[in-house]
């Protein structure tokens, strides 16, 4: 089977879509299939092309057995809605054109969160007369409204109509949460064509390790209880809550040895750093994104990981992928996301849940984690047990079976 995969993000970028796509496609190649990736020059989230790459019309490389085609896009930092839409639209056009020249393809997969990539997938599938599979990572454009980037308007209504068109014309939808599947069912989409393949963790890459002593010393974290946020610093994440928690801890005797480590980049990072400096936070450390192969070093510094999204109804349907990386590393979680992902945390016993944007609950949970080492050890043990149930290799195999089923049905349809 030859799988054509369209994705706006791909390594060496290190965000969740890039990691999931790379790890799944690598497994499919190892299973004997051919995979071609169409993506752009790596530039997320700063909007600067990574060293060693160019924003050229067409570049070809091989990565872990994958044929990777990189096309030109209008590059914008992860800030400014209008410029990001131009980025998405340019990729839609250039990815479609490049894909039409990829020969002997059996199925095209296009991944969100933004669905202009899915538009390209539908167009390629239609032109090549092959099945189009929509990997649904986010309910876009609903998430735009949730973070306040756009309000109800004619443009939003057009995007919502386009969204429904793509759902209806996809041969299969692969959702990363059960909540998305229920939501689409409630909007009239046939749930029988929706498979749920959650995010997971590469247990070979993310596994328990001692604290990186050199990095710990470099950051001045010796003897500290380290809570960390690792990921995008965006509008959806509500990281002001962590700043307020750090400010509260700094004024408490029992919080003096607690440090908050913030690793990553995003649209809100500069404002967060400016605010932290203005209020004099000596217990919060900001660090820029690092290459994927170095991320586990930073995870190793954490005694507990904080996962947080703003308090909106939409975000109760998402499952942050970093939850599974925490499990693989054996790092207990303080989980400030309501809904399906909170259910996982409580069911698996891998940490504590607090209400999104609730500073008091976050501070209490941090101090409790720091003082109760026995509970912390129990959470760590349960993280490792749970990680095996979300092994990325097994999840990739499940998605591969979905694609094989779609291809088999497509071939039968063409024969008829």
Structure description:
This protein starts with a strand and ends with a helix. The strands form two sheets. Strands 3-4-2-1-5-6-7-8 form an eight-stranded mixed sheet, sandwiched between helices. Strands 11-10-9-12-13-14 form a six-stranded parallel sheet, sandwiched between helices. It has 15 helices and 14 strands. 44% of the residues lie in helices and 17% in strands. α11 crosses α14 (373-387). It has two domains: 2-200 and 391-407, Rossmann fold, CATH 3.40.50; 213-389, 3-Layer(aba) Sandwich (Rossmann fold), CATH 3.40.50.2000. It is globular.
Q: Summary?
A:
This protein is an alpha/beta fold. Helix content is 44%, strand content 17%. The chain folds into two domains: 2-200 and 391-407, Rossmann fold (3-Layer(aba) Sandwich); 213-389, Glycogen Phosphorylase B (Rossmann fold, 3-Layer(aba) Sandwich).
